[in-house]
Design a protein that fits this description.
2 copies of one chain form a homodimer. In chain A, 30% of the residues lie in helices and 24% in strands. With 659 residues, chain A is an alpha/beta fold. Chain A folds into 5 domains: 88 residues, Ubiquitin-like (UB roll) (Roll); 81 residues, Ubiquitin-like (UB roll) (Roll); 138 residues, 2-Layer Sandwich (Nucleotidyltransferase, domain 5), CATH 3.30.420; 126 residues, Nucleotidyltransferase, domain 5 (2-Layer Sandwich); 109 residues, no CATH class. The longest helix of chain A has 24 residues.
Chain lengths: 659, 659
């Protein structure tokens, strides 16, 4: 049985490949075909009728369809799922509808997901294992050969494994005599490779017997909200276990500023450190027990987090991070023994914390840059991690510039009347009928809507703008023939979901103030990128690749994000999403010394700009306070679509008047 | 006033330079002139009469001299002290006495004391300061220059001081933000230099203001019996304070074996470590308070001790040191933070422990080799540290071989009927009248004798042998006309001090079993050296320099030690005494990275021989069980003296019979 099937939509003549089991409604979304739908896929609104013309589907029958309709092949698109190739017709009510049908939404297109992994490293020739486990059968000492135990170990490492420039720790010396004799001189040495060419190989541990098959590392992302950990098998490169948990510091403040303020209290810093270490330890416990590995076999832990999270974890006073001129303590932290800071892995594992660029471009971003491989690419790349604060990096293998801007909480639902985080019931995607202005909505979990999350907000703004429902300043056309656009208490809004089709006791609306906030947020980010590029003598239209990182990026409909001017308009195929870049970078550092080596030079060359200190930023910000921008020429595809829509609407009006 | 005066002895016609205030008796000793004296200098035996012929002395008058004798210039040599140039006549009783007078003892000649110091290092071009303190006035951050604090520090170190390849510790990062701002960005950075050429400069500490004038190090000798510490000013190279204390482990056992046995008990190792650390801390407290330095200004502590002491200090199981095949845990120990092992200097000082060669040639010996500079010399040198165990190193700048042998406790007074450690009342020097066999004794503290210490024992054996009182197997001539040689309970002995002239209630004697023990001790050492040399294809007569280390070496009368065959016969001017070589090496390592660098190669090239595993050792040992050795040809000066004595005795007998 095929896992992918073709779904053809008529009269649009659009086809799309979708997975078996996908709903017809989501297939339509993917194809850029609008079908009225407002109940989130629960089958209660009964609006999303389609007619089966060829092939068959599973389900899609409902009491909202009459027997006659069923026999004619009507199905509810939100309830019917693909089981084979199928041709569907979307009922249209007028010649005008038909004439504009081909102009409907750009197909939904999220970024391709690119996770650097072990195989990528090997293919690129970048795999330089940071930790080796070497099995040894030592010649036991006798009267004629009674060199010290450590000397014997090192001699065998030289002779049997060609090792040189070895050094070791006091704890290894302490345990070696007993282990050698308990294990009849058959042991496994854990050797940590130097990051620098001229460095030494560190014998970090010695274990009885042959433990070469057990060689593990841990990667940790210290997020302000959530802490993720992965247990990595250094032999295969695979992730054996992953777990996450809320950062225990949340109890002391939601955001970095409140954490810093807490740390400024007496004993506050120690408390912040204790709490985050406890969360990390809980995550470690989960992944270690899930993977059922012996803690003794874990040699390194690589952590990354933003500057505040890193300083709190390391017990470094964060006071000056939040005070002008925003000075962090350090870029680079030396490696240290994980146990010294309270991590309960074992007594010997070495911890590395990703370096910071500035108070607002932290190790999480550096990790993303490293993990994504952006720093090795020739193309001019824009790296974006969008949240309440957006961190931006532009550059390529020759140079990198970065900054951070406050986007505000709009993308996380803040400042939006029905905004919410990406959770069950959040409208995550949207389309609008250009004639009737009826919506097609998709919610996370396919349930009735209860709010709008960031990606839904972007899509709504893009669709409303492209369909001429709002102008380039985010204001509604006041005279459109639909009850969904209305003025309430002096504020114009669009009713996305009527109360009766929602989970709420009132209509879910999108207001002009919501759109203002969105435009401010996207304008801050876009102008941040422009400013960065301008500072290095380049412009946004020169961006060849975009990398999205962070929880938000995976849901963004790229064309929509370009339509509102959140992203510059480039081929969506050149946009990749790397997910949790911080965690990926930490994992990559666990897997290869090449990344550990490169990160020093990369971090040093990341030129940081404080936007508040860059006079041109405000001008660029104001210019970005339009949809998509004052200069629509920078968005040629969008411009062409808007012009085509204008022509089609005229034709539609003509067709209607002819009818 | 002159501080040195000439004392001339008649009829010997020997002159000697001595300090003002020296007794005439000690001047005689130094000149190799025998004067009967047996009360230790208390003036009670009245034997040590000399006649003032020119010049004058202070004191020397006693009720044991009649008025007439006083007027004739008689003085008691033990009570009279030198105050100017003087000529003395020693009364001799017979022509025979006169004829053999010139053959009396070789002049007392102890090793010249050579302490390597700061100036030596500078002269030799070896002074590479291991720690620099650098004063900085940083540009404070502002909006246009908000690099991280650490980056700022490093940039200034580069620009203002030409520093490169810098790294720093987490504690420095932790304290830096607050210190910079408290001190208005004027700070002093403590930079530890790398030992290897390719190493990194470690920023170990940062202090507010200008602390460049305060740069200290500590050297510690961890002796089995005594722990010594020195506080070193790295700017001047001078020792600001020194202190010693008994190693607290003594309560758990006198020698290394009993300490190891204690450490094998449950929790015994932790106890041994705790106790020695406590003693070291007490010593540190003393020197730090004596020198009145701020603990914060101390950057390094260098420790050296024998293998067992080092392992106990570091908490390394010493079990295998005392069990065949006598395997120590390690040669080299990595540097570590002193506080981590419980040393209460400060939180950042780095500790270095001298490397070991084998279970019985430890860091104290390596430190002696390093501190003495032996490893940089061209001459074939014999390094000797004599105690219950004697450690021997032979070689030069190209090669080094070492071993340890059990000399037994004879040199420390053990196994000798009236043996005692070097303490007040111990006979430390001795001469014998070749005709009357009356002794001249010297005690530590110039009090009546209560025993014989190691150096006294060597001198007695040498004098008795050279004067023909004992033969080359250490047996007394049975027929000499003196009550001092007698048989008691089947054992032959020489009465060194009659009971009434001693502190004891019986005669102090030297017995044949005492001499047997001494011969075994010196034979073990000499044959150890011979074996070592033979193993590398050389022989004892090729030794060009001797270095003596340890508490014992300063008292040894070199000619006497050569007479009994403890040392090979070389020019005494080529013998140096370095005192506590362990402490000196630790101090040298504190003062220059050159020593820290060289010690790695030197320790690695010190070839260790276990005498028990060297078949030729037993043959050489047996050959060394004579005075001085079966092959007297190896001791040509002694041979010549013995032959001359034989001729003189014949002449003396002739003279006597003519008289």
């Amino acid at each position: 049985m095929k896992s992918q099937c073709t779904v053809e939509f008529l009269p649009h003549n659009r086809s799309v490949e979708v997975d078996v089991g996908e709903t017809l409604l989501r297939a339509a979304l993917k194809a850029g075909v609008h079908i009225n739908a407002s109940c989130g896929g629960e089958g209660v609104c009964g609006k999303c009728r389609v007619i089966l013309e060829a092939g068959s589907v599973d389900g899609g029958l409902s009491e909202r369809l009459s027997d006659e309709e069923r026999n004619l092949g009507y199905r509810l698109a939100c309830l019917a799922v693909v089981s084979g190739d199928v041709t569907l017709r979307v009922p249209v009510e007028s010649a005008m509808d038909r004439s504009v049908i081909t102009l409907q939404a750009t197909p939904r297109r999220t970024a391709s997901i690119r996770q650097m992994d072990f195989d990528c490293l090997k293919e690129e020739g970048l795999f330089i294992p940071p930790v080796a486990k070497l099995h040894l059968r030592l010649t036991p000492p006798d009267a004629n050969n009674n060199m010290p135990d450590v000397t014997r170990l090192i001699e065998h490492l030289k002779q049997d494994h060609g090792e040189h420039r070895l050094e070791l720790t006091l704890p290894v010396i302490r345990k070696l005599p007993a282990i050698l004799r308990e294990a009849d001189f058959e042991v496994t040495a854990t050797v940590v490779r130097p990051v620098r060419d001229i460095g030494r190989n560190l014998i970090l541990n010695v274990q009885p017997g042959d433990r070469t098959a057990h060689n593990y590392a841990i990667a940790v992302d210290i997020g302000t909200t959530t802490i993720y950990g992965q247990l990595i098998d250094l032999a295969s490169g695979s992730c054996l276990a992953e777990a996450g948990d809320f950062n225990g510091q949340i109890s002391y403040g939601e955001d970095v500023i409140s954490r810093i303020m807490y740390a400024e209290k007496p004993a506050g810093l120690a408390k912040m450190q204790e709490v985050v270490v406890a969360t990390i330890n809980a995550v470690l416990d989960k992944i270690i027990s899930t993977a059922s590995v012996d803690r003794e076999d874990i040699s390194t832990v690589t952590l990354s987090g933003n500057t505040t999270m890193s300083q709190l974890f390391l017990g470094i006073e964060p006071r000056y991070i939040r005070r002008a001129p925003y000075v962090p303590a350090a870029s680079f932290y030396p490696p240290f023994t994980a146990a010294d800071i309270g991590l309960t892995i074992n007594s010997h594992a070495i911890a590395l914390v990703y370096p910071q660029v500035s108070s607002f471009v932290g190790g999480d971003i550096v990790a993303g840059v490293m993990g994504s491989g952006m720093y090795r690419q020739e193309e001019l790349t824009l790296f974006l991690d969008i949240g309440t604060n957006a961190e931006l990096v532009v550059g390529n293998r020759d140079w990198l510039a970065c900054t951070a801007c406050s986007a505000g909480p709009a993308f996380e639902g803040g400042g939006i009347e029905f905004g919410m985080r990406a959770a069950k019931g959040a409208i995550e995607d949207f389309s609008i009928d250009p004639v009737t202005f009826e919506p097609m909505i998709f919610t996370i979990g396919d349930v009735r809507a209860r709010g709008i999350c960031g990606s839904g907000l972007i899509t709504m703004a893009a669709m409303l703008f492209e369909m001429g429902v709002i102008n380039n300043r985010g204001k509604f056309q006041r005279d459109l023939p639909t009850p969904r656009i209305r003025e309430r208490d002096g504020v114009w809004e669009y009713v996305v979901v009527w109360q009766k089709e929602s989970q709420l006791d009132r209509d879910i609306v999108l207001t002009e103030p919501d759109l203002d906030n969105l435009i401010r947020a996207k304008g801050a980010i876009y102008s941040g990128c422009m400013t960065l590029l301008a500072e290095v003598g380049l412009s946004m239209d020169m961006v060849e690749r975009i990398i999205l990182a962070g929880g938000f990026g995976s849901y963004i409909d790229l064309e929509k994000a370009m339509t509102i001017g959140l992203l510059p308009e480039i081929d969506p195929a050149r946009v990749t999403y790397i997910g949790n870049g911080s965690l990926m970078g930490a994992r990559m550092s666990s897997l290869t010394n090449r990344i550990r080596h490169d990160v020093v030079a990369v971090t040093s060359k990341m030129t940081n700009f404080e936007l508040s200190e860059t006079p041109s930023y405000m001008d660029k910000y104001i210019a970005a306070m339009f949809l998509p921008h004052t200069e629509i020429e920078k968005f040629p595809r969008l411009k062409a679509r808007i012009e085509a829509r204008g022509r089609a609407m005229s034709n539609g009006v003509d067709a209607k008047s002819e009818a």
